[in-house]
Amino acid sequence: MKLVVRAVTLVLCYILFLNTRAVAQGTVESNDEEIKIVTRTLEASIRKKGYVTGVSAQSFLDRKTGFRDAGFGLDIVDWIMEPGSDEAYRDQLDKELIYQFGNPYHGKTPKRSIEGPQICTQARRLDPQVTTGPDFIAIQMKYQYKTAAPGKKTGSTWRQTIVFPEGKRYFLSCDRIEAVNSSDAMFLRLDMPGHIKHKNGDRFSKVYLSYAGEIEPKEFEKDFAPDEKFNYTRGRDPLPKRFIRAYRLRDPETGKDGPWLAGMTLAPDVVSEAWCHQRGYICMIEEFGGRPVKAGESFQAAFIVGYFDSIEELHAVYDAHAGHTGLEANAMGWKLVK
Questions:
Q1: Class of residue 17 by CB neighbours under 10 A (exposed 0-12, middle 13-18, buried 19+)
Q2: Domain tally, the chain
Q3: pLDDT tens, position by position, 47-103
Q4: Within a domain: residue 7?
């Protein structure tokens, strides 16, 4: 009997070991719902089920200040899209692919989905892979799109790599599309860094857009369309030296300011359009790509997302990593690539 108990105990310990790994820079705990990462500077969760992609809502903790993200998640991914209207064939589309425009949610610009579904809400389940090294933890995810517009194929692959470097209050990420369709201006839509839930500005004291400056909470007291103000469109607007979107967190109970939570797109020219508008919450949608893509080709963008004490620190970190569009990670290490 004692031998049986001992054997069962050893098996349970082994299962626990497989699902919780202590590494030099922190711990990685995995269960059926999520992967939880704890480092000296951050905590974050990656969802396997439900609302997936990126870092899950309110799981991103800055251990220096105790503040968390104030939205629905960070680097959250949607559809593959292109300019133009789907009005001529809407009756043939999966309901989830229909893109309504000329409204306060999407603005006046005609756009249409090439492939879907919206990954974050409709993929339902992903299988994130964990890689650890001496000074980092990496998470890699992928998904093949299942639906497409008439005349388009299904099966383009989205890949996301997220790297948590030791000692940093931010993570690096890359979203990549390997396309099975051709388009004159294919782009990927995502939330970058993420939306802001608030009531009359109680969760943030300022928004910072590198192409528009610092913005007070009063600008977001009433809903407005994404193309009404604080909209960036490549070709129409000057290309900024840095592409940074951030908000300064505020404690809704005490009113005390916290750190800036920022999303940086490291190559400014990959961004085709970016929104920062109010629709019950502050919606920070970003679209990258928007250039010709042939079937069999790919496009990608690299980001830094995390906590910073000042605008000056944001700029310094950005400049140290500027110009990169990709991110690679394996057991030997990680690197940004151009």
A1: exposed
A2: 1
A3: 999 999 999 999 999 999 999 999 999 999 999 999 999 999 999 999 999 999 999
A4: no
10 Å Cβ neighbour count for 71?
A: 24
Instruction: Examine residue 296 and state whether it is found in any structural domain, yes or no.
Output: yes
**pLDDT, mean over the chain:** 93
pLDDT in the model for residue 7: 44
For the chain, the three-class secondary structure string (H helix, E strand, C coil) is CHHHHHHHHHHHHHHHHHHEEEECCEEEEECCCEEEEEECCEEEEEECECCCCCEECCCCEECCCCCECCCCEECEEEEEEEECCCHHHHHHCCHHHCCCCCECCCECCCEEEEEECCHHHHCCECCCEEEEECCEEEEEEEEECCEECCCCCCCCEEEEEEEEECCCCEEEEEEEEECCCCEEEEEEEEECCCCECCCCCCCEEEEEECCCEEECHHHHCCCCCCCCCCCEEECCECCCCCEEEEEEEECCCCCCEEEEEEEEECCHHHEEEECCEECCCEECEEEEEEEEECCCCEEEEEEEEEEECCHHHHHHHHHHHCCCCEEEEECCEEEEEC
CATH of the domain at 117: 2.70.98
Angle, vertex CA 327, rays to CA 231 and CA 40, nearest 5:
95
Residue 141 domain flag: yes
50 close to 92: Cβ distance less than 8 angstroms: no
| Within-domain flag for 32 | no
The boundaries of the domain holding residue 270 are 73-329
pLDDT tops 80 at residue 199: yes
Question: Among all chains, which residue has been given the structure tokens 């383009």?
Answer: 156
